[in-house]
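Fold this sequence, please.
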Amino acid sequence: MDFMNELLNCLNRIDYDAFDEDYLDECLDSRDCDPFDTEWCRVDEEIKALKNAQSYTHKNKEEQDKIREKAFMIIEENIEGELSDYVSDDFGLIYDSIVLNYKDEWLNKLIAAYKNKKIPTGEL
């Protein structure tokens, strides 16, 4: 999927030198709080409701797993820790939205953050 590869390339070009321990803690905290957490969970639930055997196949799940693993590894290679899981989840959400043709303003902002070589946090 070209779009997902483009996003993975953006993720790979983030300046991880700025990610000291304090910045990482702040980043994780802002993702666990409103409005980010509430919006992420809302989009996730709406996408889950769209999934069925006709709209989301085993092949889709395999592709999603590969994309999530690539995103996870990019973060792990640059900074270890919990952020790898969060970013992997984001990439799974983005992939699913494409497969299911799900559109959402907040999700567009999440994607835009990655396109701008930033890890999305807080209010987007």
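The mean pLDDT is 95. The chain has six helices and no strands.
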